[in-house]
Give the backbone structure.
Amino acid sequence: MKAYVFSIGEKTTEICIDQLERYGFEVVLLDGFESIGNKYKRFIMNAEGSCLKIDADIIPNSNIQYAKIELNTKHVVSFSYFDFYRNDIWVGCPTLYSMEAISDIQENLDILDANRPETSACRLPGIQENRTNSNIIMGMHGFFQSQDDMKRVMLQKLARRQESQFDIDFINKLRKI
């Protein structure tokens, strides 16, 4: 199964790729600086069969092997990870897409929100009803990031008005280590 890694140069990109390959995935790196909308469209247009989408700031653990299943419906499964920014478990990525879900998203690329393409794709009719979350913890997110990456993430969370989900004081203490 292919795993598509979204990277903008995070320090954890190589370890993410190494871990995926270690657990039997064929990795396709989608790197470079471009809008998330363009990168997501590139992923959807090139995806083949059931596949995994993962961000490079997630370090997969051995549970990632459980994501190597073929889905037979318009199914999207979001897995869990331990999140640095929340100091807690969260659901969202990696995400497993069925071939049918990819096909439906390809047909609807023009209506996806350019700033939140994956979120809007998962809300498409036919996909939304077949989307599930898994409690299996597939790795850890946000660790070992540069100060610039951490600042970018925090600004993104503030822009989305998600600051209440994060322990800002805790994050600032960890940033100083």
Q: What stands out?
A: Residues 2-143 form a domain with the Spore Coat Polysaccharide Biosynthesis Protein SpsA; Chain A fold (CATH 3.90.550.10).
